[in-house]
């Protein structure tokens, strides 16, 4: 089994750090104001915890991080730089268990089916295109299924990515049955011996039971052709939604057995810390993070790099 992803491209940490600059700036300015020639006493810890909560790390996760920072430093003099380093270390420790590349199993009898889900506007279609681009660069054959049959714009966007990546796109008329399209796409991908089938879906409002039931139907229908399909269910989350992303994970995981996460739009928010809260609460693999519109702006998740960028520190030392 190989990994979909591989080495980080040169310069990725710089883009990641730039993308997280708003999140890091908010944290850094607060930490700088708190720790100017100060002991790490209980008042300081309480203020630090509040700062982390405001940065969308969540109450429970913030408490864990503060406890870890205080363990060997309580009542000792500490600088803002030392706090940032300790923060990065604690965050990295929480994130390492979810740093798992998306794996590709060459031994599968048919295509590896990756179902991409999420609410409206999180960037599912763009994420599919970027993953397809990575896969094609690695020499894998890819097919795209335009399962968002209610939005003509989504179909057109996927077709554009198909042209860019040389991947065929299966689509139907507006309003067509998405489950039927997914079934047809899997049948065609099997017939053509495609390596990976990426299935787009409409933006599902996480509090709409009927729409979520339709998503569950897509899964059931594909299993008629391949009981193991979909092999991956990727939930795309928009970092700008902050703590609401936690609700989305809980809901989608119940409906369609989410296997991994992609976190997008980290470059447009000061709420990048929500990724830490999600990882701590759910423990789901985080396969990719996105900080821009270009294909190269979606990269495999790296715990230490993310933690250091969030804390406003420089690139982690080479192993």
Automatic annotation (TrEMBL):
Entry binding sites for GTP: 118-125, 200-204, 264-267
Topology within the bilayer: Peripheral membrane protein
Catalytic activity annotation: GTP + H2O = GDP + phosphate + H(+)
Stretches assigned to the SRP54-type proteins GTP-binding domain: 285-298
Main location group: membrane
Alphabetical list of SUPFAM superfamilies matching this protein: Domain of the SRP/SRP receptor G-proteins, P-loop containing nucleoside triphosphate hydrolases
UniProt KW keywords: Cell membrane, Cytoplasm, GTP-binding, Hydrolase, Membrane, Nucleotide-binding, Receptor
UniProt-listed InterPro entries: AAA+_ATPase (IPR003593), P-loop_NTPase (IPR027417), Signal_recog_particl_SRP54_hlx (IPR013822), SR_rcpt_FtsY (IPR004390), SRP/SRP_N (IPR036225), SRP54_GTPase_dom (IPR000897), SRP54_N_sf (IPR042101)
Tagged with keyword Nucleotide-binding: yes
UniProt KW Hydrolase keyword: yes
Pfam families: SRP54, SRP54_N
The protein's Enzyme Commission number: 3.6.5.4
Subcellular location: Cell inner membrane; Cell membrane; Cytoplasm
SMART domains: AAA, SRP54, SRP54_N
Family affiliation: Belongs to the GTP-binding SRP family. FtsY subfamily.
Function: Involved in targeting and insertion of nascent membrane proteins into the cytoplasmic membrane. Acts as a receptor for the complex formed by the signal recognition particle (SRP) and the ribosome-nascent chain (RNC). Interaction with SRP-RNC leads to the transfer of the RNC complex to the Sec translocase for insertion into the membrane, the hydrolysis of GTP by both Ffh and FtsY, and the dissociation of the SRP-FtsY complex into the individual components.
Subunit details: Part of the signal recognition particle protein translocation system, which is composed of SRP and FtsY. SRP is a ribonucleoprotein composed of Ffh and a 4.5S RNA molecule.
Protein name, entry field: Signal recognition particle receptor FtsY
Organism whose genome encodes this protein: Ferrovibrio xuzhouensis
